[in-house]
Amino acid sequence: MEGALSSDRYDRGGSGGGSSSHRGSNNNNNDYYGSSSHHNHHHRRGGGGRGGRGRGGRGGRHRHHPYRRDDHHGGGGGRHGGGGRRYNDRHDGGGGGRRGGGGRHHNNRGPRQPANRFTTETKSVDPQYAMMKQLTAMVAKMGDLKGAAEVAVASSVDTTMAMGDNGEKNVIMRPVVKAIGMNVSDLVEVLCGAQNAQLFLKFGDDDTTTGDWDDVSDLVEVLCGAQNAQLFLKFGDDDTTTAAVENENNEGGGDDIMAAMNLNENEENVKVINATKQAGTLSTLLVSCAYGLPLQTPSYAALTLGVDVKAPRETHAGFAGRCVDLAMRCLGRDLDMALECSTVASSSTSKSKGGDDDGITINENEKENVRCFAERTGGYGNRNQIDAYYRAKFLLRYLAYLTKIGIVAAATAAEDGGDQSSFLGLLQMLAQAATNAAQASSSNNNDNSQEEKKRALGRASRVLASLILSVLPFAMNHHASSDGGGEKGCLSSDTISDLVDVIENNVVGQASNYSSDYCPGIGPLSILLKGELDDAPLAGGMEEEDEEDEDDDDDDDDVDQPAPCADTLQDLLRTVRKLISPSSSTRFALLDDSPWLALTMDSQSSDMGELEKVPMEYSGDQLVLDLVGGEENRCKSIPYLMSIDNADDSVEIICRSLDGIVFGRLAIFDAPSEGDDDDEEGDDEEDSEETNPNLESFTKSYSLADRFFLSDAIRDVLICHRPMVSDAGADRNNAKEVADQIWAISHLFLGADSSDDSTSKGIEFGIIETVISLIVQCTPQGSGMPSPSPLNELVYLSRVLLELTKLKPSLVPQAIVLAVSGMFEDFMPSLTTTARENLGHWLSFHLTNTDYQWPKSYWEHWAPYAAVDQRNSRGDFVSIALWSMATLSPEGPETVARECLPAGSTLVQSVFLKHAQNNANVCSTENDLINRIWDTSEDPDSIRQHIISDELSESYGSTVRSSDDDADDSMSRPKVWWRTRLATRALFHPLSRENSRMIALADKAWKKKASAGDDNDMVDEIHAEEGKDETEDILADLTDAIARFKPVLLAAVARDADAYDSQATGKVDDDKLLLAGEVSILSEIGGVVSAWDSTAIFSLIECLMKNKIVSSLSVATWALGDNKEELTNVHPQWWKIVSLALSNAVTDALSRVELSGTDLGGGIGMIIDDAAASDGVDSTEADVKRLDESLKTAVPVLKYSLERVCHLLSTTNSPKKIPIAAADLTEGMKRLSRAVLFHLSSLALSPSPSLTLSNLHRGLMSMDADGEKLASACQAVECDGEQERKLLQHVAFSVEKML
């Protein structure tokens, strides 16, 4: 089991978590979230459990308080855990958990490196290198909102006015924007000075600093490579920037970086265009920051203008043109990467396109190199595609600002004819490409071999639509009546409306064939169900009865309702459509921020001949945009889509996913009561008791457009500033810096009224709403699939939310409490199983790392839901949260009972104590077998002989058979497999004993806390009574025992099977009989381990499969209820269990294929040289064989799971609401389909360069397991009720869409 997670997992050391013993009153649940008593924490015993295996101790003194920034000493770690660590000026507690460790002592600059005491050499620092490093930090921090806000507050000068076009102070400018403008102005003066221009503004052949690695050009290649955006996402503060640069320069990181760029200097007769050298050092740095720092884009547009105007004309003119040209090169490449455009050619060759002077190398290995580089620096899934999408998004935004300034042509005279050289022409070209892709994806041809290609084109059209829609708000004029400058390059409302119409009618809107993956109940990734769960009523049932009439009304209202706004793409379309309306407005100031208005230049007065300051303007010819680049071929995907009917067959679009680009939408708090904002979540009748003024301010003053821009900015920050580790081992960013950047978004909103104090009031609720909405759609823990993007990573989001809590302790905790309360009351019965589990896991992480502070009244309110015998959504949520906390704590349920829950809480009894097992009833035969296995270490062969002996059958078997009066004669009866079950229980006795011990400790802690009022000596008394071996590792011991006593289990299964076969009246199917025996083993595990203890369940199942004791089909059979008709027999985490089984089975099948290809029968296959073995062997044939074996392994389990799910759904018999087990089946089947596709792709396709997803889909079709055939089989299932029919339709729709 994992140890206690910490709030700085990606940092150099771990932080507190685990178990601490709070000395003093335990009524600290309300300390932070409602009262001021949280400041009264004095000396407390450190966190962590008992040290195991010689690591970690019982903990120190002064455990770190998560909200205090003063000094506390770190506690000890849990079992296998380390101690505490120091971060800056505060000490964090040690890591807890049964295996997790704590952190290390470090400060902001990382661990000290060992000094060399035997040399007096000093390394000289190149002044030019140091200057360029300082410039990098200056440019990165120039538009920082937090710093600018501090300057604006501290400054006494007039920061509310700026000069307009007429030279008068008539343009209102926000103080923070004026401060940024002043930063830009100061930096421009430095860069363009007479002495500095030659150093900073060099470009092309003038840049002669080439050669050694320590030279400036090589440093710029490291920092500013056009294809390496992630190198610039490290910018957060000057220290980390400096550290990262030093690591890359001194530890050899440049070789990998240069390999990842679009350069191939080894090709003969090909002149390579070095885009960064042509643009120059500063241009490259500026463009890279523009697409890597989303909150500072206006400042980089202003810097482009300032340097272009101030640079010496004789030597360094055309700076803006070089920036735009580099931006278009980057945009072309990023569009290809975002759409996953590739050339159908040999991946080992490189092709040159272009003439003698303008050729650029097109390296077919480029994308793979970049992908590998991204993975080495900590990538998620297809991070290359996601990063390219966001870079393209921010580059378009940068070009929109340049268009507003007048540097880029907004539209040309030929715009009606489709001219593509202006900014409008670029957007029109992208819109046409998106339309062509959407139409091609919905073409009605019967060529099934093109199905994957059509799906890829459909996804590509949505990527382009998202890019276009995301830049339109930045290209329009939001103050049409204003005379202020900076709006001359805005696109007209009519023009923007035409673009939106094209996208709405062809790609995203209701008129198109767009179906959201997050559509409630139907979408494969839906967050909400199509209706509510049929939760078990509480005692008295009053609450449920009051809702019956409302449910009837809701059913009537659902008829002919339009599709809900389920994802961020639909929300973006709606927001842009609203902004076009003249009566609509938004408080999001980034759309109109114009720091360039603060820039001035000297102009000679016509009257007196004196110099005067006038607003800075671009005086050159407006620049045109060239995306394709002629023979340079900057972009292949857009020309391909523009002529898709006659497209070149050598280019293909393989856009595989929208994960990380489009997200589900979940509005937790009430929508604003605006007449023009008709939102399905809004309910203006339910705002009767708003007691929090900040929440009231958020719900009333933040419109739907404001909320969208806030959420979108938060997602941008989470992507661009995410923590990473470079190839050289350097840390880049951490969760604290991400939290700082998120809170800086509060400076981007205008005040709801004339008072500046109200600009960000209530914004914490929008931040929490966004982060929690991402948390519920994270990749489920234990699914066996990686997170496709950082925004789908639960630990990352949990750490950011934890740092936000520390950053704003007076605001964020209250918002969290109200958000969780709203989710519990209003959303829990409508959440999918995965969303509910993610919410519970996050809450457990948060409470574990915040000293379990939570209002006591909430635990008391939640307790009755967990006490209900029947499963219900709210009770499941509470159980998941508490069991997850127990897993993260070193002493399990005891810690939760002692430190988290209030004294006397019934949750201890209803969640933990009901799993107590009565080991006193264990019979003497079982005790004897336990003694043989665990105490005397008897030889497995002698135990095997004992388990199959006739003596055991006479002494124990007769008792079992006589006690079972079941008249059923099926092979799955428990009495058929009495030997198997007996051996399994004996083998897993340590786990049963440990669970009983933990439950007993929790019971004692609960009773002592209720009676003694949290006595200080309670913990020591409990641990004195437990008598547990400190070095015992239950799961490790069980793993060894399963491998050792495998013959005992197999012999027991074989003996029971023979006994049943000899007594059966008819012919027995041997395969089914063996399957029933394997299921009996798994059933005994299910009786020992809690359904929510996923770590133990997954570990044991994986061990059994690797030892070939159970098969993947038997695991699926057990998880889905062992062919019983009751829904209650289905495991709540069934699809994760089946996914794990499939992954292990496919891996084993592929290993057998590899073994058959290398083993020559004489045992000498391994000594053959790999190169010689592969010489002359057709790799494609081997790849096909791998895929074939994978499909033969996975498809039977997939088909069985679908058939079983459909059969169970057809028997639900629920007239209105959805039974919770039926929801588990429906949502689980969607997730399982996705998991099967991932396992087959990652295990069978990834190592095979000759196979693609199309080959996988054709293989599924050949086995009647493609989406269309499986959906038809699902729809063919007969059912009587309307609810059952809807559920089957939902499963069929999702399976068809996924497979």
How is this structure best described in words?
A hairpin with a 6-residue loop joins strand 6 (350-353) and strand 7 (360-363). The longest helix has 31 residues, at 1179-1209. The strands form six sheets. A two-stranded antiparallel sheet has the order 1-2. It has a two-stranded antiparallel ribbon with strand order 3-4. It has a two-stranded antiparallel ribbon with strand order 5-10. The N terminus is likely disordered. The chain contains 50 helices and twelve strands. Helix 25 packs antiparallel against helix 26 and helix 26 (794-807) packs across helix 28. The chain is mainly α and 1299 residues long.
Separation of the first and last Cα atoms = 34 Å
SS-based class: mainly alpha
What overall form do the CA principal axes indicate?
Answer: globular
With strands numbered from the N-terminus, the spatial order across the biggest sheet is: 1-2
Portion of residues in helices? 40-55%
What's the number of extended β-strand segments? 12
Overall mean pLDDT stands at: 75
- Assembly form of the protein: single chain
Provide the β-strand percentage band.
Answer: under 5%
Poorly predicted sequence stretches spanning 5 or more consecutive residues: 1-32, 34-119, 159-169, 208-271, 345-380, 481-486, 542-551, 553-560, 675-689, 1159-1177
